[in-house]
Records
---
Amino acid sequence: MHTSSPSLPGGTWTLGDATVTRFGYGAMQLAGPWVMGPPADRDGALGVLREAVGLGITHVDTSDAYGPRITNRLIREALHPYPESLLIATKVGANRDAEGGWPTARRPEDLRQQVHENLESLSVEVLDLVNLRMGDAQSPRAGSLAEAFETLVGLQREGLIRHLGISNVTAEQVDEARGIAPVVCVQNMYNLAHRNDDDLVDELAVDGIAYVPFFPLGGFTPLQSEALSRVAGRLGATPMSVALAWLLQRSPNILLIPGTSSTAHLRENVAGAGLALSDEDVAELNDIGRRAKP
């Protein structure tokens, strides 16, 4: 269910039993380069998290694989004890290797270990929301998620997880997961230039399930970037602002989790996402996605 919010663009959405701001914050960029190691400016990273909550953001996205084990500890130091209104979403299904890769880790024992590591690093007894990450570092991959998702359902029944989501998945995997247990959100790559999930976004909206896009400016061709910059220039806004505003206006079930390690950039993203796009602006922006289709 979507409701309005006076302070943040996009209002709010109900994730399971929690009401969250549609404008959230993704913590991945708080780790070091290539999402490995600690941040260069640790105090700055803590400041960004506190500013996010201070602005009224109630949805923070993280994973113990970020760093690894860096962003969760920063979240704990900056925000614990957590405000009752704050929902922290984490992700399991991948680890990190010494080269900074993201090898899959979806065996039942891997997932149980990751859930317990997230509980410890965030210093909580129950994880608000756990997304099962499927596919690989490049894209979703076809295949059953049943064993992995059922493992998380078991941990949910043990009282360690409140809500379940899925990430980097195909439409078929969404259907499979929903046939096993309730899913409150789907987290995939989706933006102006990459609209393969258009139908999925609409189907989930009808069923009251959130869609959480990542990489709002990822994978644009030079021509697509030029088209976005042209609209942004006309509106006196940044391309990121226009991309975020388009996502918020695309469907009420879309929740944003843009990341940044800069407090100033965080404020800019919040202000930019509130940009009012006219029907003509939206039509021109929609053409960007159409150019990506064969």
---
Amino acid sequence: MSKQTITISGETIGRDRIEALLAQEALLVFEECDFQQADLSRLNLQDCGFANCAVAETSFFAANLARTRWRRCRGGHADFEAADLVDARFEACDLNNTSWRRAKLASCSYRGCKLTGASFEEVGQLGLSFEDSLLIGADLRRMSFRKARLTGLDFADADLSGCDFREAVFEGGSLRDAHIKDTRFDHADLREADLGGLKLSNAKQFAGATISPRQAAELVRAMGLNVA
């Protein structure tokens, strides 16, 4: 039997209010609600929908957010550490400086999102995807993008140390000034990416990768060499 859907619009919502709503065992949809700085840690919000909501500095620590849907939400500095976000969907959300440390992000997707300064340390990421999103200065250490098609992703100044981009295809986007210690780009297609400012400490990181003549010239100049 399907759950009743309850839509909550334009409210300022704290923990007590949301616990009362959850007690109704309905499918909850929040529209233009304000959750800012609320403590929603460890709550079961599975399958809830959030549209045009404010969640800045909200704590979702260890919350169950599986299959949640987020559209045009504003959540700077929100805490999603250790949350279950399996199969969650984020679209056109402002999530700058958010923490996703140790979150379960399997099959989670971000489309058209701002994730500048976000931390994705030690996340579970099987099937995780990003599209047309800003990841400027984000902490993405040791994440795998192997064989992924990366469309419109801005990794400028991001920490990509230990990441795996082997056989990935970059469709636009940027790696400008990214930190790439021990990062693998073997057989990646980088022709459409902005590679400005990259420091190649080990050419083997790019073994078999495809770049354009323009990119090759830029990388040679970055190494202090002159092409006659």
---
Amino acid sequence: MRVATFFGITLSLAIGIAELTFPVAQAVQLRDGIVYFVQPPKLVEATTTYKEVNFWGGTYYFTINLPENAGESLQKVTIVQREGSENIQYHLDDTRAFVGTRDRKGTQLTLGAVTSDRQTRTITVNFDPPVTPGQTVTIALRPVSNPSFSGVYLLGVTAFPVGEKSHGQFLGFGRFQFYSNRSWW
């Protein structure tokens, strides 16, 4: 395994020989060229604005923290529907991302391609430019509508560092519970 240090900060004291070195995050790259995060991002939260089935106009938010010592910038995120009785469809052209959280929106981020693979139930969100370490970002996906069937829907979130050959780090599941708003007598 090859570990490359980008740079370090050294502070020398004028009085003597004492020296403090503050290491900066290092990128991990294997001999075969695969790039890894040094410290992986964390899925902070996954929420939806509405929990009722068949609701039109909701938004699904995925908040990710990319730590300062990640070692690489965040290039893309995949969101895969792992559980749920109905495939959720999205308005991909209405996908947004911003620095901050759902409740504390900051600067809007520029996205590259946002794609969908219906067979694997995967949404891929590319950042252009990549997100630099030390930031919390939120991806906002707009479904065509919430599913027609109530129940639990699990959406797996994976983050990929910059690199032609990058290893995706699974961050966890966003768990959405949708409820029927009908009363059964």
